[in-house]
Amino acid sequence: VWIGDDAAVLGGRRGPLLLAADAVVAGVHADLDLVGLDDLGWKAVAVNVSDLAAMGGRPIAAVVTVAGPPDTDLELLYDGIVAASERWGCPVVGGDLTTASALVVTVAVLGDGSGEGPPPVQRGGARVGDTILVTGALGASAAGLRLLQSGATGGPLVLAHRRPEARLDEGVAARAAGATAMIDVSDGLVADLNHVLVASGVGCRLAAVPVVEGATEEEALGGGEDYELIFTTRDPGGAGSAFARAGLPAPLVIGRCTADAGECTLDGASLDAVGWEHPWR
Amino acid sequence: VWIGDDAAVLGGRRGPLLLAADAVVAGVHADLDLVGLDDLGWKAVAVNVSDLAAMGGRPIAAVVTVAGPPDTDLELLYDGIVAASERWGCPVVGGDLTTASALVVTVAVLGDGSGEGPPPVQRGGARVGDTILVTGALGASAAGLRLLQSGATGGPLVLAHRRPEARLDEGVAARAAGATAMIDVSDGLVADLNHVLVASGVGCRLAAVPVVEGATEEEALGGGEDYELIFTTRDPGGAGSAFARAGLPAPLVIGRCTADAGECTLDGASLDAVGWEHPWR
Question: How large is the ipTM?
Fold first, then answer.
């Protein structure tokens, strides 16, 4: 559905609306020697849908703007955009195409934040004592990139890097179960969790971080682009039940929120000490 | 209002919603030797608000994505973005900032298409016999660019190029008065009018095109970026009255829609013959 007008016309919505935008830049967010233009297109949609997932919302529609060199293979790019659009039921209703010396694909998504239960989940609601969970093991995308760089062409880790998944159902389940704060792992567990901690004014003690088979702990802590969701809750059991009822894999407990707003430890050691340089320092 | 979360949360709306996005690229849409980064920021917002104006809608919120070189003067850029955001009551509620070798500023706007009377005005509704009007004289932006290139630094034409205006009130008035089709002049009168003609399956005979003082007829026909609105209606008198009631300058009749879908003439001569090369051929 490409509306071909100045703006797309969409039906009204009673509940809260969500609006987000992210750009994916060739050579910055995707190495086109390793992944295809279709993968870049997929990713541009996926990162935006993931932003809606991290609020516990669902997509209504997207607009896609492509700025790039005239010889860009737009058909291949749009193949990936369309595939992701269909994957998450997020129709592309408009956008723009223009010349630029760098390839920048910008997607903006309108999301539906309605639904039963609490409002969309923001970053600042984590409270001292809340349990911290993640929707899946981490490090797949970074490990997949490493494998691509060493010549691999397939396998689940490579696929995780080329075609990341947005966790829409998990976001909705976490919100319905009373998540107090939520974010998606785009920059890396430590960096993204820190956004929650800063916005909420709490610290954290992590007991363990689940690492995807084939990835290193460093990739799980700092690799980013896994798009698993991190959320906090006072009722981790209730969250587990909600995920089970929704037919989703159980979320994994990784730690707890503490009162010391500066603190962030993994298994008792400061995260600096495990080799991770905090990007916010 | 920058929400600083994965997505901005906005209130629900009963009426139709509008969604649009456009990118402005340094060196393509703005020559930074002639205009400031603040002008580029203003323009990125203005072109999007103008897309809403061309539907007869009003802005609810915008998200702004900046991809650019690390040495970009973001403060200056945002000055212009904020000024335009305030000019049209279109709060910037989120976005993204990333590195790229070219400066690409992408804005997506969510608009309110509700309101009394007919639904948002699209491009395809012009009918044979409809009168074609424009909300103001054309050519100011192209003339302003020409003056800047020859060393001018101020004056109304230069201002029209640096800080184009979106015609929100005019769009609302035209819609309320029963405009059958509407578009904004971004690429040039002939090019944009043609979008309406093609979508509506009609032709046009233009009697005269109003040229801004200091601009040439060629600048008025092909210059673009004036962001005046072109609209069609069966009741030009009613449109004039509606504009007068709203305290707006009277829209100017420029011609009429004809049954010959291939036809586009100005004062009896094919527009090819007045020196304008149709961009769609």
Answer: 0.92
